[in-house]
Design brief:
By secondary structure, this protein is of the alpha/beta class. Helix content is 49%, strand content 20%. The protein contains 21 helices and 22 strands. Helix 1 packs across helix 2 and helix 2 runs antiparallel to helix 3. The longest helix has 58 residues.
Length: 645
Amino acid sequence: MTIHRFILLFATIFMLLIVGMVSAYYRFYTIEIFLGIAGGVGVLLVAMFQDMWHQSQKLHEALDISHDLDEILRTILDINQSLLSIEDSDVSIQACCNRLSQHSGYGLCWIALKTEEELSIRGYSDGSCGVLHPAMKISVDESASFAPSVLAYRDNTIVMLDHLEVQESLAAWSFIAKERGYGAIIALPLIARNNSPFGVLTLYSRNSEGFAPKEIEMLQELSSDISFALYSHTQRAELIHHLGIDSVSGLPNRVSLIDYLSLHQVSALAILNIDRFSDINDVYGVAIGDQVLAGYGYWLSKKVEKTVGVLLYKLGSDEYALVFDKHSNVEDALAFLEYLIDKTEEASFVIEGIEVVISITVGFDPNSEKLIENATRALKQARIERIKLSVYTPLLGAKKEQANNIEWYKEIKEALEEERIVPYFQPIVDNKTHKIIKYEALIRLIKRDGTVILPYYFLDISKKIRLYPRLTKAMIDKVVERFEKCLIPVSINLSSEDLLNRELADYIEEQLVRYNMQGRIIFEILESEGISNYTEVSTFIERFKAIGCSFAIDDFGSGYSNFEHLLRLNIDTLKIDGSLIRNLPSDQNAQIIVRHICDFAHEMGISTIAEFVADEAIYSKVLELGIDASQGYYFYEPLPEALAE
């Protein structure tokens, strides 16, 4: 009996019972009317039950789809968490593949990145049937396999195939599908910031019907997230490499040396300086001079690689550093340095047919707390005494330094009392409009005779003689007084010492509120390489951001640990280090570094400023690389007063 007949019978019996209860006074034709009505009600009930059944089916289908999409969403959230928390790109790729394959509807997942004319597999989940392996190459040549992954990369589009059981190809992707019983495959291009593909994400589904439209949309969003993370990883890795390598010699540079010293225990450090190197530049030109530096660096590296426990670094200009590990003894280190001094004088370097002979002077520090600083002092002492090798001792130059400190203490103290600590203001211009968008306040000491003293000569000494906090307060006072009625923002430099001084923080906030300057003050963080207490620094930043202040990192690019600041501190602006900007027209490595810094900053919503823009050639490169603003003598020099109100 069909459900239609059952419902009709039920309705009829129900209506007959009603009829039976009707008074005997009604005629037979009245019963016929009721029977007609009963038939109509039965048909109506059938339609109602059918509609309810169809609605139930749709609800079940909607719940199933919702469950599937919810599972995909949870998978995506987990992957994004991994992308944020894992810094190593290969580990991050593997985590993404593993998590996607854990989805109940999915199987194998793998990610490949472009290298030369091939896709190189960088990670894949379990279950590859032994076909896939790390660093496996897949050609993307036009005549190569038409695998979904290749098509997705080559055409920069999503490629999906379903009903994979009909595929007869012996290609790896098809073989895997047959072996594991996968029903569909989707390949999504990984796209860089310039909208060109740099890799591909490939995923197998157990459903032969393929991937639902909403599912594809969510996977596309996931591929965008993965693209952003991997592209950022790649940029960061390339930038770290360039920041840590000397562009002339190819040796690890000062940044790498500082990083190494912070992580390892060493027994001694020596600084080797080429004698009268400026004469070589003057006589033969900078190009020949650079080749001498590179040649001598290579010569040193060959000597060092034969010696256990010694590392070579290239410092600024014409200096090299040798680091002796904790197992080295002083006697052996000194013997090796004397050997290098003698052998350097015996060697000659032929550059473009020119024979160049050099000699070196060495400063050596046998394990003090300030290896670089004290080895430099020993080098200076060797110059003074006109000897080839000087060893640092605690008494070396101590009396002279003490007398110098006393002299500066008197000078700075009197300048504070007589209000001769003043700010000079250097405009910062928008690179598109050339309009002044902000100022930087730069500290100056004015001597009684009117001579202007730059901070290079007195700022570090002020820290040693404990007058530095008073200088910061004096700058705060003068800047807020001058800019109280100016609408253009102004930046004030703060050292890591300032950021950790709670009493100073209270004083700064009091002055900003008093002059209503909170929304027009930018704090530039100096010496960012020296920041170690991120918790307290972050507390300072968030405290003053809450009242409307902004923050910038000064001299960005002078060290690659700056990237950690970007991730851990809430920064608004990067001021790119002047040593990079000055060399932009002639130094390709500087161009690469600055380009990466700009891309990285803009991806994170951070503005960029080029420091030391001194001429048209530098400014042209600054514009080409997409830096937002410029500061330097090409536009304005620091002045006692602001130009615009």
